[in-house]
Each structure stands twice: as structure tokens, then as C-alpha cells.
Amino acid sequence: MNIENKIIEAAQNAIEHLYGTRLEANKIPLQQTRKDQTGDYTLVVFGFGGFSKKKPEETAQELGTYLKDNEHFIIGFEVIKGFLNLLISDAVYIQFLEEHKNDAHFGRTVIDPKDKVVVEYSSPNTNKPLHLGHIRNNLLGYSVSEILKANGKNVKKVNLVNDRGIHICKSMLAWQKWGNGITPENSNTKGDKLVGNFYVLFDQKYKEEVAKLLSQGIEKEVAEKEAPLLKEAQHMLLKWEENDPETRTLWEKMNGWVYKGFDITYKSMGIDFDKIYYESETYLLGKDLVLDGLDKGILFKKENGSIWCDLSKEGLDEKLLMRADGTSVYMTQDLGTAQLRYEDFEPYKMIYVVGNEQNYHFDVLKRVLKNLGKPWYNCIEHLSYGMVELPEGKMKSREGTVVDADELMEEMYATAKATTEELGKTADFSSEDLDQLYRIVSLGALKYFILKVDPKKQMMFNPAESIDFNGNTGPFIQYTYARIKSILRKAGEQNSSFTYPEILDEKEKNVLKQLYNYPAIIKQAGDQYSPALIGNFVFDLVKSYNKFYQDIPILKEEDENKKQFRIRLSAFVANTIKQAMLLLGIDVPERM
Fold this sequence. Notes:
It is built from 22 helices and 14 strands. The chain has helices at residues 3-19, 49-52, 56-70, 90-100, 132-150, 166-178, 184-187, 191-215, 220-226, 228-241, 245-269, 279-295, 330-345, 359-371, 405-423, 431-451, 463-466, 474-491, 506-516, 518-528, 531-551, 560-583, and strands at 30-32, 41-44, 74-80, 83-88, 116-120, 154-161, 275-278, 300-301, 307-310, 318-322, 349-355, 380-385, 388-389, 459-460. The strands form four sheets. A five-stranded parallel β-sheet has the order 7-6-5-11-12, with helices on both faces. The protein has a four-stranded antiparallel β-sheet with strand order 1-2-4-3. The protein is globular and about 90 Å long.
């Protein structure tokens, strides 16, 4: 039984003894004591006046006295109005260390094969390389998946590649017109970047056509729809859907370039998937679902032949599910993908990691599935996250103003190298060791800076701030881990025959209290889909450890019992840092 449950059970007994009332455990408010007050846990007694018939301060005083006199693990208390702050015996935390010091999986729950969760993230388009916005998506999806695994979920990480549609046709058409046979191989260009360049080129040429039409006196809305280049792209999409051999061959070739590029970026980022879906393989199933819904009278067709779902009775509007020319929209393929994914895994939850600009889309998706009679519609959850911006503002793919993911990681590597060299502590590293260190530090800086922010919040990315070796950054945490590993190497083999101290220094106890909270933090992070909770935890743990390290001797401690205790405490901290950072997809170096 953990400390919280022991306190609640003790409070139940105390209330029953003093006031003749047996409260349910969930009726006893317990929280950690504020850092500016004395105590470890706080009972909130304001609601107990109904049966104690006394003021909150008097009730708290009576409960505190009874608990201190009757529970050996409660050694003191303090009353502040209706708050009863309880001081827990050091022996409880020492026993906690002894029980978990060698537990490599501390805080994690064994995975239940039946507890299936699907997490979709990345979801790139094949008309452009991955950029900074994709980085947040990928890091969130991967980390949330790992956190859910730590909570015992059988997680399947999936990716849906948007490999068809007007966007890829724009790149294809631009390559046909102005590519002159260029390939990734003969241009020494990464495939996804090459295709992305033609997407940008299409937009430039399209704007030139629109400007020409405007100069002829044609209204802007009409000019944008009637530009010849756009008409050609739309015609190419129709030919693709009709399985035109030439169009399909070009599509397969250019998408093949993109996939090779994506794979390089995913590997560099440390991201993987259990299954990859392709929109080109799911949109037909979505069409079947739409046509079936039309046959059953659930959906309706307008005069122009387009098919819609009427959600007006649910407070929304009519939603287009298939265009008049028979081509599909995003909602069509999402219906098909959801159906296929449910058939593949039968999960109790399908989590979509998608930016908050798609909140309405996923609300509609669930409602359409419900109307189509899919009983599992409610297992869909949208992990809606805020956009990433730079100091200079928003990014735009079609204008070529995005921050390329590969280039950003290369810049982070160069910054990590320069910063590490300034510290001058890697003189004995081989070139291979240095390369690995720079990659670990640069990726740690990037990932931690993004994941420490609550997913729901919009964020500003500042590369220079992220690589700082001081403050709330990945390198600061990594450096502390490496410092502890250095201590442990110097300590050598641990002495198994020692006696734990009876009384802890306050800083030792603070570290143990942080460690004790880790399992609860993992659960909370899983419930809220928030890697930021893990990030904040590990930063607080590192701060507590550094205060302990700076003020209390470890290897120079003359008392062998205290020395061995502190070595074990340090080892436990190091293991927890490593495991927590892995939940964020971040490695920690053994040396820095």
C-alpha cells in the first residue's frame, strides 16, 4: 500500500473513532503539501464540519493529534486554517528506496495485450518534406504512445500518408512541365525536398496565371478557379482516380522519392511506426461507406450529384462527403481509414494527433460515423495541439517559408557541437563518441524544448534557448545524468553490508519525495496525453538532486552508511531520469 492510501485509511479510522462516521476513501481530500509550508501531505478538512460539529481548525487539530498518537508513520502535523499538514516518517521513504532501487521498470505498468490503443501521428502529405510543425506532431505522437505503454496499454503507432489528391497532382504537373527529367539521384537532392520544390514552383506559376487573368478584368474569385494550371491539376486528379496508366506511373515514381526522404528524416528523429496506411488505399473504402449510407437514406444527394451528411439537428451544418464529379474529400478517406483501423486492431481507443485547426473536422468525423451506425465511433479521440511558430511568424508550405525538419536537426547538431566544445570536457572522446554525443544532445534539446510545453498551448520555438546547458532544457537534464553516472563509476562496486540511516537530511528526503511521485505522474500524463508532465517532473527531480549534490557530500562522506545510502539514491535518480527521458523519446549520454 502506498503512502497516500495509508494516510487515507488512517484518516478514515480517525474520523470513525472521533466522530462516528465512516467516510468513503474518495471523500477524503488529500494532496501534497505546498512547498512553502511544513509537511509532506495535506488533508483538507473544511468538508468535515457536518459530522465533527466543530470549526475546521479544531477538527484539523483533533485529527492531527489522533493520527500522530496512533499511526507510527505520521510523526508530526501543522494546522493552517482548514488544512492539516502531515509530516511523514523518514523510514517510509527509506523503505521506498530499498524496495525500488533496483527496479529498472519503476513506475511502469505491465502491458495488457487486450487494452488496445491506436495512436496516429505524423500524417504527412507527399507534396513536401517534413517541417517544424511535423516535428511537434511526431514528437507528441511518439511520446504519448510511449507514455500509454508505460500505463499498460497495448499501443499501435500508425501513420496515415496523404499520398493522393490535388496537392500531389500540383507537384506532379509542375515536374512534368518544368522538371526536365530531374531526379533525386541526378540532382543529389533528397526526394521529399525535390517534390516539395515543384509544389512551390506550381504555386508561383499559378499566381502568375491568376495575376494575368486579373489584369484582363476578371474577378479574383473567378480567376483563382479558372486559372489553366489549376484546371490541369484537377484534370490530372480525375485521371488518377480513373487509373490512367501514365498518371499512375508518374505518381508512383514521385511518391517513391518522397518515401525514401521521409524514412531518412524519421530515422534521424528517432520516430517509428507499427503500421503505415496510405490514403490511396483507404479512400475507396470511404467511398463505399458513403454510398452505402446514401442507399440506406442516412446521407443525401444534391442536384449536382454531390453527397452530403446533414448534421443540422446536432448543431452543425451539412458536410460534403463526395464531390459531384465522384472524387473524394478528406472526410471520405478518414471514414475509410477509421473503419479499416478498427477492423485491423479492434481498439477501445483511436487517438489522432492532429493540430487544433482540425477540431471541427474530428467532431464531424465522429458524428458521421455515428450516423452511419458505427457503434465504435466514440472511441475516436482527437489529441488537439497548438501550432508551432517562430519569432518571424507562421510558416507556409506553398510559399516555401517552412522550417525544414532535416535542416533544423542539422542546425541543432552544429549548435550542440559548438556548445559542448566550449565546455571543454570531451578531450578524451573519440570522433565516433563525439558524433554520438552531439546527436544525443541536439535531439534532446529539440525534443525536450517542444515536449515540455503543454500540447494544447501554441508555442514559440527558439533553437538558441533549447540548447542551453542551464535552466529547463534537455541538455541540462542530460548533463545531470552524466554527472551522476560519473559519480557511480568513481564509487565502484557498492557495499552490500551497510545500514540505512534513521534520519534523512531534508535535501535527501526531497529527492526521495520527487521519486515517490513518479508513478502517479506517469498515470496523470497518460490520462491527459501530456508529455509535458513527464518533462516537468524530470526537471524538478534534477533540480532537487542538484541541490542535494551541491550541499551534501557523497564520495567524500566519512560515514560509510551515509555514503552507501547516497550512492544508491544517486543510482535510483539516474535510472529514473533515463526512463523518464525515454518516455519523451530522448536518450541520455553516459558521459558529457
